[in-house]
Amino acid sequence: MSHPLKFLAACALCAVxxxxxxxxxxxxxxxxxxxxxxxxxxxxxxxVLEIAAPNETPIExxxxxxxxxxxxxxxxxxxxxxxxxxxxxxxxxxxxGEDVLVKRHMFRQFSIRLVSNSVKxxxxxxxxx
Length: 129
Prior knowledge:
Blueprint: H1 3-20, E1 32-38, E2 45-52, E3 59-65, H2 71-86, E4 90-95, E5 99-104, E6 111-117, E7 123-128
């Protein structure tokens, strides 16, 4: 096999491995995340997060938010939801009232992302620590 064909074959194998999940890339991984909540809830709704660790099925975390919840109460509800639904792989704690620190529990790195936010007026900023 010529050199360019070997390269293409290797690329194809890597692509298949990534798709099949035998190799899991964590480009946005960290061992600790800070979720900064700002703004009061102008409507009731749900905040849905996804927490993923290498070689694990991602966990979807749902926090139900009431209308008129302030940023501190929103942060507390999200922290409680993380503890209940993803406490097996991460630890969560409140910081400064409106921030939630999410730390590794079982894995070296994990990713966390916002899936959806139907709560009007609440913004979330994700920072790696």
